């Protein structure tokens, strides 16, 4: 079964940081330079059917989510894909997909507010080990989910399911360090796109791109090929690199 093409997109400091401080959500930090075009720019250039975001971009590790009530529904009934027909029918433009096997995010929006991204609907990726109370919560809130993996979300399987069920051809992953690192180590990235902003952050605990297990002495880094460099307003530079692998193998 083939998977979609995956492009990672991150806005980073010149030293590769994704935020200004540890445990800080970028969307709430006024210290980060403004001027990004956001999703509209990504939609115009890549025309994805899925925007993939990490749960760490929505809640920090030290943030304690609201406790959910226990459920008496059997796990066997909850730990199966939940794709209500009426929700799938509303996702006419695409899916905003978030892996959350630990069940940490409490959702405010199921669909993008406003008219510019009408037809985009939330879809959560979970595992069979995801707390049943969270799966019951998603069902009560009308949030569809796919069960992909046992103890954590299997991103390879999830991408293949997205292609098979929804004919997804292109995924743009805008997630943070851990989601990017998981995609990198799994060999699931076809293109890496970074928009560099004119600040330097430094630090030892502030999130950087592609947090993943360290390579051992014999492992090779992911080879890249530059396919674009564009100077943008507000001192920004957009860099694009293709992963230098055999496409016939990377899309299996």
TrEMBL record:
<comment type="pathway">
    <text>Cofactor biosynthesis; riboflavin biosynthesis.</text>
</comment>
<protein>
    <submittedName>
        <fullName>Dihydrofolate reductase family protein</fullName>
    </submittedName>
</protein>
<keyword id="KW-0521">NADP</keyword>
<dbReference type="Pfam" id="PF01872">
    <property type="entry name" value="RibD_C"/>
</dbReference>
<dbReference type="InterPro" id="IPR050765">
    <property type="entry name" value="Riboflavin_Biosynth_HTPR"/>
</dbReference>
<dbReference type="InterPro" id="IPR024072">
    <property type="entry name" value="DHFR-like_dom_sf"/>
</dbReference>
<dbReference type="InterPro" id="IPR002734">
    <property type="entry name" value="RibDG_C"/>
</dbReference>
<keyword id="KW-0560">Oxidoreductase</keyword>
<feature type="domain" description="Bacterial bifunctional deaminase-reductase C-terminal">
    <location>
        <begin position="4"/>
        <end position="235"/>
    </location>
</feature>
């Amino acid at each position: 079964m083939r998977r979609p093409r995956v492009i990672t997109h991150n806005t980073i400091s010149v030293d590769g940081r994704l935020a200004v401080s540890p445990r800080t959500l970028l969307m709430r930090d006024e210290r980060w330079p403004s001027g990004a075009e956001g999703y509209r720019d990504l939609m115009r250039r890549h025309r994805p059917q899925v925007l993939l975001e990490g749960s760490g971009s929505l809640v920090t590790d030290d943030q304690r989510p609201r406790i959910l009530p226990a459920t008496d529904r059997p796990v066997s009934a909850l730990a199966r894909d939940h794709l209500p027909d009426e929700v799938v029918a509303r996702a006419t433009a695409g899916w905003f997909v978030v892996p959350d096997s630990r069940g940490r995010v409490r959702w405010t929006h199921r669909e993008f507010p406003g008219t510019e991204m009408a037809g985009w609907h939330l879809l959560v990726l979970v595992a069979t080990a995801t707390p049943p109370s969270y799966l019951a919560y998603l069902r009560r809130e009308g949030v569809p989910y796919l069960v992909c993996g046992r103890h954590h979300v299997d991103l390879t399987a999830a991408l293949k399911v997205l292609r098979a069920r929804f004919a997804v051809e292109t995924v743009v992953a805008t997630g943070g360090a851990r989601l990017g690192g998981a995609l990198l180590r799994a060999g699931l990235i076809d293109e890496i796109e970074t928009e560099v902003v004119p600040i330097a952050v430094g630090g030892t605990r502030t999130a950087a791109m592609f947090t993943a297990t360290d390579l051992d002495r014999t492992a090779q880094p992911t080879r890249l090929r530059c396919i674009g460099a564009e100077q943008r307003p507000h001192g920004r530079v957009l860099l694009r690199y293709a992963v230098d692998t055999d496409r016939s193998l990377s899309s299996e």
